Structures are given as structure tokens and as C-alpha cells.
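Input C-alpha cells:
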């Protein structure tokens, strides 16, 4: 079994590293608490601005100098302000880590956040909001999460237009200072590395980092229910959500397997029943969004206005019908699909770096591929059928975007 190295520094930062001796690349994922859920009221969108602005110069280098230095080393990087964690992800050749890591950690610890970088960052954030008019599927999920989750966990990662327009550089700097902190932060690596050298360098760069950001807490009940947003279109976009198990529940692997029966390829139930047999839609899928404190099943279908009502009815019915039982052939296909995804994850150092960081955040410990494969191997058809029978879908939140509301 592959050993995942782990070390926690005195400031609360956790370092994880999973070796892949045959890999030449090294991937990094750094999670911090500077997330959408901890944005101050009236500043929704400040995390999105920070996501852009940490890429516009850090340490002693301006935006062009910092970007050129990372490009010269061949470092591919991205930032993401998520609902519960802000992430910096990067992939590089393993031999370049000593040169690349100071440049990457400067983005977190020493972003320049210059006055001149605010206006273009705000422009990009507002453009992303404008683009929603051409992305009704994304619009559905933004509204669906807002209704399904309690505040502040249902916030859009794109922010609120009025808040963004009113944002000052001091708002961004204060948010960075208050939330980009080491207590609860996680930095993970997967690929080719020397553990002792990696641990020592991370300690040199981040060991004197200080501060703590409390975890966000729900501030009320979720709205739930049905919402229709009018759009002059011949298409209708349908989203639904309902509660599921959190990642921390021992039966979450069964929850994942049940959704693999619904949406695990062209032989899965949703594709077969909604698209293939009835030709109701051009797109249909479901996913299990597992978090540390909650879980949700999210499902989507895109169809025409004429077939929208029947599509919604069948989509809801198929989610509910799952509790009536799963056949052996469906079970076998789902398990093979889950194993295939684990194999593909194992071939990507980036996927593994992100996965072990997510495990550490959600579960308090990383899981190896062997452990994950063991969980999948331990699923039986009897266990899965008992699970779906006992965990029928509850009340659903539903959002539609199209010319007319649907009957729920």
C-alpha cells in the first residue's frame, strides 16, 4: 500500500504528500479558509476578486514578472474560490519544485493586491455574471444551491453585482488578511519528490505563517421549494436537489454507488429511461455532492419546452424509483465504473493531490487509492439495495429556466 506522508506544523498547517515514483510530474493543492462562505455581508464577490488578484503579482514580482517566472519553470497553475475553501493548484516537473514553491506560496502569503489590479479584476468578475445569460445550465445550479443550502453555504461563487461594483481595494486586502490563514489550511503533493526536502522547504516558506479563521456556520434554514426563472427560449433547463449523506458518514460509499446506478454512463438509468427510451431530452445527469457537514444529490436535464413537463416528471420518478431496487447487471456496471474512475484518478498527480487534500478537509485524514478500492470492493448488491430502500429521496428543491413554469 502506498504511504501518504503527513506532517502538521505548529501553526496548524497540514502537509500531505503521496509518492508516485514512476511519475515525473509533481502536483500541489493548497487549501485555505478564504472562501465564499466567510465573505462579510455586503461583500459577496470579494473571494472571486481575490482569486483573480493573487495571480497579478506576488512577493517582489509584479504581475508580468511573477507570471513569466512560473511559465519559465513550466508550472501550470489555477486558483479557485470555493464555497468552503480557497484553492491554489499547480503541476510542475518534480525537479522544479524547489524553484517553483517560493513563487507559488508568495501568491498566498505575499500577493501584491495592487490598486491598479482591482479594476480589471472587477471587470472580469462582472463579465462572468453577464455570461450567465448565455449559460442557463449554470444559472440553474446557482439558484438550486441557493435554495437547497442554508446561508452562507448557498452563496454563488460569482458574487453579487452590486457588492462587486462597490468593492474597494481595502475590502480585498482586509479579506485576505482576515481569512488567508494557516490554521486549518492544507497543502498536498502527489508525484515525484524527496519527502525530507519537501517538508523542510514547506516549513521554511510557511512555518512562520500565523492566524486562524473560524469555520463558517449556518445562519438559518434553507429556502428549498420550487423556483422558475423566465427565459424567452425554446429550451427548458431543469435542476433538482435533495438531501444525501455527508462524506463523513460510513455509508457515503453506498450513496456514491447508488448515484453510479443512476448516472454511470450510457447504460445508466437516467440516460436510458429519460433520453434513450423516451427521447425527452438532449442532456441528463445526476451527481453526489458530498461535503464534510452535508451531502446533496444534484440532477439536471435540458429539453424542449414541449417536452419539459414530461421530462421533469420522469426525472423525479427515476430518482424515486431507485429505492425500489437495483438489478445485478446495473450493480455490476456501477461498480466497474467506480473502479475505472479510481484507476484514472491514480494516473493523474493533479487529481490525487486534490483528492487527498479534500479527504483531509472532509474526513481529517487522507485515503490511499488502495483504501478507496477496498471500500468499493466491499459493496454488495444486498447492502446497496438495503441502503436505497432505507434512504428514499426526501423533499426536492427544483429550479427551471424557460418560457413557462412547470407543475410540481
Amino acid at each position: 500500500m502506498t504511504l501518504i506522508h503527513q506532517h502538521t506544523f505548529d501553526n496548524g498547517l497540514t502537509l500531505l504528500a503521496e509518492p508516485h515514483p514512476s511519475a515525473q510530474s509533481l502536483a500541489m493543492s493548497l487549501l485555505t479558509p478564504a472562501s465564499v462562505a466567510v465573505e462579510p455581508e455586503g461583500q459577496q464577490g470579494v473571494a472571486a476578486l481575490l482569486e483573480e488578484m493573487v495571480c497579478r503579482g506576488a512577493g517582489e514580482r509584479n504581475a508580468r514578472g511573477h507570471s513569466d517566472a512560473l511559465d519559465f519553470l513550466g508550472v501550470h497553475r489555477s486558483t479557485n474560490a470555493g464555497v468552503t475553501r480557497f484553492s491554489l493548484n499547480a503541476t510542475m516537473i518534480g525537479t522544479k519544485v524547489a524553484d517553483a514553491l517560493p513563487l507559488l506560496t508568495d501568491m498566498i502569503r505575499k500577493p501584491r493586491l495592487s490598486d491598479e489590479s482591482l479594476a480589471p479584476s472587477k471587470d472580469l468578475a462582472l463579465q462572468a455574471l453577464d455570461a450567465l445569460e448565455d449559460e442557463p445550465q449554470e444559472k440553474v445550479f446557482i439558484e438550486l444551491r441557493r435554495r437547497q443550502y442554508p446561508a452562507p453555504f448557498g452563496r454563488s461563487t460569482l458574487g453579487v453585482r452590486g457588492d462587486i461594483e462597490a468593492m474597494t481595494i481595502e475590502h480585498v486586502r482586509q479579506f485576505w488578511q482576515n481569512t488567508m490563514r494557516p490554521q486549518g489550511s492544507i497543502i498536498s503533493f502527489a508525484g515525484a519528490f524527496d519527502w525530507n526536502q519537501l517538508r523542510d522547504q514547506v516549513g521554511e516558506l510557511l512555518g512562520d505563517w500565523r492566524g486562524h479563521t473560524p469555520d463558517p456556520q449556518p445562519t438559518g434554514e434553507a429556502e428549498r421549494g420550487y423556483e422558475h426563472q423566465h427565459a424567452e427560449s425554446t429550451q427548458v433547463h431543469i435542476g433538482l436537489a435533495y438531501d444525501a449523506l455527508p462524506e463523513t458518514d460510513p455509508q457515503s460509499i453506498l450513496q456514491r454507488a447508488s448515484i453510479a446506478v443512476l448516472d454511470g454512463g450510457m447504460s445508466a438509468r437516467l440516460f436510458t429511461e429519460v433520453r434513450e427510451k423516451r427521447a425527452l431530452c438532449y442532456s441528463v445527469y445526476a451527481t453526489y455532492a458530498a461535503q464534510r457537514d452535508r451531502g446533496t444529490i444534484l440532477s439536471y436535464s435540458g429539453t424542449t419546452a414541449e417536452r419539459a413537463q414530461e421530462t421533469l416528471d420522469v426525472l423525479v420518478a427515476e430518482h424515486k424509483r431507485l429505492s425500489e431496487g437495483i438489478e445485478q447487471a446495473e450493480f455490476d456496471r456501477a461498480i466497474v465504473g467506480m473502479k475505472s474512475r479510481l484507476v484514472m484518478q491514480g494516473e493523474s498527480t493533479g487529481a490525487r493531490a486534490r483528492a487527498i487534500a479534500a479527504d483531509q478537509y472532509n474526513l481529517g485524514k487522507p485515503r490511499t487509492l488502495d483504501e478507496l478500492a477496498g471500500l468499493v470492493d466491499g459493496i454488495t448488491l444486498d447492502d446497496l439495495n438495503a441502503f436505497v430502500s432505507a434512504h428514499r429521496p426526501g423533499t426536492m428543491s427544483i429550479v427551471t429556466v424557460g418560457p413557462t413554469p412547470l407543475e410540481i
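The two ends are 50 Å apart (CA to CA). The chain has two domains: 5-206, 226-402.
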